Amino acid sequence: MSERKLIRVRDVMRTEFHTVDGMATVQDALQLLKQHHLECLIVNKRNAEDEYGLLLVSDIARLVLANDRAPARVNVYEVMAKPVIAVDPAMDIRYCARLFTRFDLSQAPVIENGKVIGFVGFTDLVLRGLAELY
Fold first, then answer.
1. Residue 123 pLDDT more than 70?
2. pTM of this structure
3. Residue 34 — φ and ψ, nearest 5°?
């Protein structure tokens, strides 16, 4: 019986991610999302005691578009998710997939020593992780 290869979140995460301030407008966030072809942004901490937030395109669709709110009049903090469930870079991708499933997540920031170092989603887990196992 062969030993299974261990692939960690660190091996499949994306290290390029973008952040936004919670006080920015959703319109500002939309420009960033569109410019960089993204589906989410990390919302910066306000101070060392604060937590990171996450702004997903789906949040904007549900809380701004569906409610006919003007993106220029809504701040990111009003529609973001906070605090976020973060992933440790040393986590096995199998456990990361289970965590995502259990908490109905599709992506999460990767945090090490209190700092965001990357971002991981189901696509990364499957195409960059699972595909390497077989």
1. yes
2. 0.85
3. -70, -45
